[in-house]
Amino acid sequence: MAREIETKLSLGYGWMDADHSNEAFPEEDDLIYLRRLNVSACCGSAGVQNYEDEAYVDLMGVSRVWFKENISQIRENGYEIITAAGDSMEPTLKNGDLVVIDRFDTEITKRDGVFCVLIDNDLYLKRVQRVPGSLRFISDNRLYDPFEISLSEVESRVIVFGRMVNSLNLKRYD
Questions:
Q1: Is the pTM above the cut of 0.85?
Q2: Any residues with CB less than 8 A from the CB of 55 and at least 6 apart, and which?
Q3: What is the pLDDT of residues 63-73, one digit of tens each?
Q4: How far is CA 53 from CA 46, 47, 62, 122, 161, in A?
């Protein structure tokens, strides 16, 4: 019967199974706000230079429960959202995906991971792997070759904005 009512009222499938009362939504003080910055980091062959104006363009409020499950159980600050641009990190990241960056995690020479980095004035999202004497920057898309920067050059050529901790992969339906 619920499915029939949903169909006749043009409600989504299962709409009547969810609690739509005010109690089902978190109070404002139970939300954690993530700033979405006006920053696009390249997942392609050339970096995007849209990093000079770090003004935020949006706030995304998420419940503390969701935040602890998906972002961090340790702390609630230091996380921001940027946009992935290009295809070199596919299938991990697609063009336009929103990426949560931990701005406090910048120790690129001490751990592997996907980092947002400024290299020679170009901003990238790349998988970083420590190898003897250098850092290897890897694209998940095999059409793109990895490149290395020696540890002696990292300090002068690389600025680390943070480590990717999660992404909001968007699937578009045209």
A1: no
A2: 37, 38
A3: 999 999 999 98
A4: 19, 16, 25, 14, 14
